[in-house]
Amino acid sequence: EGVGGGGRQAYTVAGQPLETATRLAAAADTGEILIGEGLSGALSRRPNLDRVKKPELRGLAAWRLVSEPGR
Questions:
Q1: pTM for the complete prediction?
Q2: How many CA atoms lie within 13 A of 61 on its CB side?
Q3: Phi/psi at 63 (nearest 5 deg)?
Q4: Long-range own/partner contacts, residues 29-37 (CB < 8 A, 24 or more apart)
């Protein structure tokens, strides 16, 4: 739900989505894009992905974006 007035709203994310995003961002190397299971399953066109297994991502399914679909 958005909060705010005057035509401007702010949104807040909390809980598991925020924790997952924080862990993925912290584990990513420079220039690397990591995505979690929720996003990978929601994509209509699946990009080329490699499964990532890093100690800091234990218990979390994660993939590295290799390239966009058709590339």
A1: 0.70
A2: 6
A3: -135, 150
A4: 32/64, 32/65, 33/64, 33/65, 34/62, 34/63, 34/64, 34/65, 35/62, 35/63, 35/65, 36/60, 36/61, 36/62, 37/61, 37/62
pLDDT digits (tens, 9 = 90+) for 29-68: 999 999 998 888 888 887 889 999 999 999 999 999 987 6
What is d(CA 42, CA 23) in angstroms, rounded to the nearest whole number? 19
Measured distance CA(66)–CA(31) in Å, rounded: 11
How is residue 59 written in tokens? 């218990």
